[in-house]
Amino acid sequence: MSTFLGPIRQLGYVVDDIEAGMKYWSETMGVGPWYYNPAVPIQDYTYDGQRHDVTNSVALANSGEMQVELIQTRSDTPSMYRDFKDRGLRGLQHVAFWTRDYDRDLQMMLDRGFTPKMSGFVGKNGRFIYFAEEHHPGTCIELSEVMGPKGRMFDLIRDAAKGWDGSDPVRPFPDLSGE
Length: 179
Hints:
Elements: E1 8-14, H1 18-27, E2 34-37, E3 43-47, E4 50-51, E5 56-63, E6 66-73, H2 80-86, E7 91-99, H3 102-111, E8 116-121, E9 127-131, E10 140-145, H4 148-161, E11 170-172
Parallel strand pairs: 1-6, 2-11, 7-10
Antiparallel strand pairs: 1-7, 2-5, 3-4, 3-8, 5-6, 8-9, 9-10
């Protein structure tokens, strides 16, 4: 467990084919059910300080307390996912720490010398930020706010994985737009 931000709560994998990824993880690894959004509604998205419109597909499932995220980019918009793929990489791209005190934890990361690279938000109180990899080549760190509807969705996904029997392996994201 990190002594700074608590336990790592999510492993984020960049994939070329998210449907094949969900099938593999559910049938071979026994992880599911998957909550899938073919076009995540990311607001206020920035990369290297520049705003962009981005289209990514995301699927989320839990294995115990650990959430697995599959990400497929659907555009050539600048992103750390695109950078990862452009380097010929696939697989684990980031680890995420979840926070209920985003401003405090963000300031702590900045004070420790981490450089923001990519950020945005999904739903109310659903901010996220990825930090540049200069502290360690390879997997980067995401800080993800889990208040509001995104936090409730993460609870739903974790609870659905408990005792999952393999049925209904792919489910839609709950609607986060109204909150």
